[in-house]
Amino acid sequence: MFRLARLRVLGGCLWAWVVLFGWSCLPITSDVCRLEPDKCRGLAGAFCKGDKECAAGLFCCQEKSNCGGGMCTIACAADSDCPPDMLCEHKMCFYRCAKDQDCAKGMRCEHNNTICEYP
């Protein structure tokens, strides 16, 4: 019962945020984007064909080997430049992982099981 009430409150807060500030102000990373990039238009991990398809502060990595040919991400020089659920590799932020199941379909948990990348 308490969980359901807490979920309703969280859902209401999220909806209020969207109404007041719009989708673009939501955090740029989430488990949804990590696992289902097709549901995260413009956010980190989302599929893209060019920079204009990514949210402000992100760019479209079009490398086939790391980004699957088009993935919104953040430029970085160190892990501290990335959101907490991401790490810096190849000067780009990638989602953290411990195993392949922590990554979206088609991605692998690479670099000693630290980041999700397209092979």
List keywords for this structure.
alpha+beta, 6 strands, 3 helices, single chain, 119 residues, disordered N terminus, two-stranded antiparallel sheet, globular
Short précis:
With 119 residues, this protein is α+β, with helices and mostly antiparallel strands. It contains three helices and six strands.
Give structural notes:
This protein is of the alpha+beta class. It has one domain (28-117). The chain is 24% helix and 17% strand. The chain is built from three helices and six strands. The protein has helices at residues 2-21, 31-35, 64-67, and strands at 59-61, 71-73, 86-89, 92-95, 108-110, 115-117. The strands form three sheets. Strands 1-2 form a two-stranded antiparallel ribbon. A hairpin with a 2-residue loop joins strand 3 (86-89) and strand 4. The longest helix is centred in the first third of the chain and has 20 residues, at 2-21. It is globular. The termini are far apart. Mean pLDDT is 82; it is low at 1-24.
